Amino acid sequence: MCGIVGGISKKNITPVLINGLKKLEYRGYDSAGIVTLCKNNKLNRARAVGKVVNLEKRIKDKKTPMDGTIGIAHTRWATHGEPSSRNAHPHICNHSVSVVHNGIIENFLELKATQEADGYIFTSDTDTEVIGHAIHQYLQDSESLLEATQKAILTFKGAYGIGVISPKDPGHIIATRSGSPLVIGISNKGNFIASDQMALLDITKDFIYLLEGDIADITLDSVTIYDKDGNQVEREIKTSKLKSGQVSKRGYDHYMLKEIFEQPQAIRDTLESRITKDSVLLSAFGYKAEDIFKNTKHIQIIACGTSYNAGLVGKYWLEDIAKISTHIEVASEYRYRNPIILDNTLFITISQSGETADTLEALKALKKRSKGKNIHTLTICNSAESSLTRESELTFLTHAGPEIGVASTKAFTTQLVSLALLSVVMGRCHKQVSKQQEAKIVDGLNRLPGLIKQTLKQEDQIKELAKTFKDKFNALFIGRGTMHAIAMEGALKLKEISYIHAEAFPAGELKHGPIALIDKDTPVIAIAPNDRLLDKLKSNLQEVNSRGSQMIVFEDEAAKITPMKGMTIVPTTTDLGRITAPIIFTIPLQLLSYHVALIKGTNIDQPRNLAKSVTVE
Ligand code: AGP
C-alpha cells in the first residue's frame, strides 16, 4: 500500500529517497513522486505513473536538478482518484507546502468544500490535497510549520501518516501519524522518516516508532516529539534487528519463491526457545499468559485474508485440543457488528504486518465495547514494532522474517505453528492435554522443517501440473476439516497471483450447490489427508469425477486414493498428524499457484490491485 520516505541530510537527499521508495515497492503501488526543497529554496517536484524507475527517468529529464538536502517522497496505491501523475504525491499547495500522506481523510469532501470557498484550487482527485491546503491556511498565522500542522490535524477525521515540508520553514520536516504507521530513522548522516523501516535500513538501524497522535519536528540534528495533547515527550530509540540484505531475492526469481523455500528455517525460528524436547513453554506468550489462559472461557479470532485462513485452522485446533469454544470472523465485518462480548473472552488477532487497518480497528473497537468486562487480547504477529503489538496485551511473534511477496507464504505457515503452540498451552492450562499428547505434538512440530524440505522436492512435478491451468479461468479447491481452510488458502493464492477465479468449499458442501459449477474446464484441486474423514472425502471425489472434471488430488501416501479417469494424484509424505498435515499440504498449493502465475506471466511479487499491507479500509 502507499509508502512514505522523507529525510533531511547533509548531502543531496534524492538518492536516499529513491532508494527508500524502491525498498517499499513490494508493498504495492501504482505511481510515485518526490519533492525536494532545492538550493534556491523552491519546491522541486517529479511524479510518474508506474514503477519508481519511471520516476527516476523523470528526475533525469528535469531542467532544474533535484539537488536539495531535504525532501519527501511517496509510492501511491490509488484510493481516491485514478492512478495518474496528477494524483500522485507529493502534493503542493501554493508553492509553499508539500505533503505526502498514507491513509484516508474521511471528511475530505467537507474540508474541500470549505477550502474551495476560501479560494483554494484543487489539482487532483485525492483526499490528500486538503491536508496541504489546511496546513497552508494555518501557516498564515502560525509561527512555524509545526504549529500549522498541529492545528491542521485537529480538523482531520480518518487515518493518516503525513510528512510535510515548506520553504517558509526550511530545514524542518514535520511528521505525524494516527492510524497509519510512521517511523523516524536516526543517523549521523541526517534524520529520516518512513512508513516502513525497510525503506531506511541501508542508512540506519536506529528508529523511533511514533505513537498514535504523535507529531515530530525533525531537523538535521534534532527530533522533537509532541504527543496528541501537545506535550513534549521522549520516545525511545530502538535498534532494529533487520538486515537490509534480508530484503533481497538471494538468487531466486521472485521473493515469493524464496519465501516458500525459506519455510523450513522460518518454522525453526518460530519454534526456537518456545519448546523443550517434549513440551511447549507457556512463558513464550508472556509473563501474564498463564493467568489469562487459565481464565479463558471463550476465544474470538479476528483477522483478514491469509491470516484469517490461518485462524480458521486455529479454531479447529483450539476446540479439538484445548476444548475451548472458539469463534472466528473477518475483521472488516467484526469491527462494524454489535457482537455479544462475553466475560473471560480472549481475543486473538493474527497478522503478518501488524498494520492491517481492518484488524487494528476491530481490535480497538472491541476494546472500547468491552469496557468493564473481563477480556484479554493476544496478537500473533510477524512485526515486533507494529500497531497491533502495541494495542495488544500479549504478543506472540511468528519470527518468519521479512515477507516481501504480496502473496503470503511463510507468514501463513508460521502463524499455523504459533496457533499449534497456543492450542497446546491453552489445553495444558485447562488440563485437556496429557504429557504424552503434548510430546507427540512437539515431536510433529520438530519434524516439520524436514517434512517441508521433502515436500519442496515435488516442485518439478507441480510445475508440470501447472500447465493444466494455462487456459483456465476457474478452479475449485475442496477439503474437509482443517483442509477446508487450507483449500481456502490455496484458492486465495491462485486468484491473487494468477488472476484465475478460484473458490474453496468444504467437500461435503459441494452437493448443496457448488457442484453445478463443475465442468471439464474447471479443474478441481482436492486435499486428501489420511484422517477420519477420508472415506467421506473419497465419496466426494467420486461425485466430482463422475461429472467429467479434471482433478488434482494432493494425498497423504497412506490415503491410497483410487485413481480415476482425469485425475492426477500427487502423494505427499505420509504419517502426517492433525497439526502437521495442514501445514504440509499448504506447500504444494503455494508452489502450484506460483507456477501457474509464472506460466500466465503475471507480476508475481506485486500482483495487480493488491498491496502487501492494507493500511486503509
Ligand atoms: C495474503 O496472500 C494476502 N496478500 C492478504 O490476504 C493478507 O493476508 C491480508 O491482507 C492480511 O494481512 P496481514 O496478515 O498483514 O494482516
Report on this model:
The chain is α/β, with parallel strands linked by helices. The protein folds into 3 domains: about 5-245, 4-Layer Sandwich (Glutamine Phosphoribosylpyrophosphate, subunit 1, domain 1); about 250-455, Rossmann fold (3-Layer(aba) Sandwich); about 455-605, Rossmann fold (3-Layer(aba) Sandwich), CATH 3.40.50.10490. Helices cover about 35% and strands about 25% of the residues. It is built from 18 helices and 25 strands. The strands form 4 sheets. The chain has an 8-stranded antiparallel beta sheet with strand order 3-2-4-1-10-9-11-15, covered by helices on one side. Strands 5-6-7-8-12-13-14 form a 7-stranded antiparallel beta sheet. Strand 13 (about 225) and strand 14 form a beta hairpin. Helix 4 packs across helix 5, helix 13 (about 410-430) packs antiparallel against helix 14 and helix 16 (about 480-500) runs parallel beside helix 18 (about 580-600). The radius of gyration is 26 Å and the shape is globular. The structure holds 2-deoxy-2-amino glucitol-6-phosphate. 2-deoxy-2-amino glucitol-6-phosphate binds near residues 305, 351, 356, 359 and 407.
How would you describe this structure in keywords?
617 residues; alpha/beta; Rossmann fold; 3 domains; 18 helices; binds 2-deoxy-2-amino glucitol-6-phosphate
Write the layout of secondary structure elements.
Layout: E1 3-9, H1 14-23, E2 31-37, E3 43-49, H2 52-61, E4 70-76, E5 91-93, E6 97-105, H3 108-117, H4 129-139, H5 145-153, E7 158-165, E8 173-178, E9 183-187, E10 190-194, E11 206-209, E12 215-218, E13 223-226, E14 232-233, E15 238-239, H6 255-261, H7 263-271, H8 289-295, E16 298-303, H9 305-322, E17 325-330, H10 331-334, E18 345-351, H11 357-369, E19 375-381, H12 387-391, E20 394-397, H13 410-429, H14 435-456, H15 459-466, E21 474-479, H16 482-498, E22 501-506, E23 524-528, H17 534-545, E24 551-556, E25 567-572, H18 580-600
Helix pairs in contact: 3-4, 4-5, 7-13, 7-14, 9-13, 9-16, 13-14, 14-18, 15-18, 16-18
The chain binds 2-deoxy-2-amino glucitol-6-phosphate.
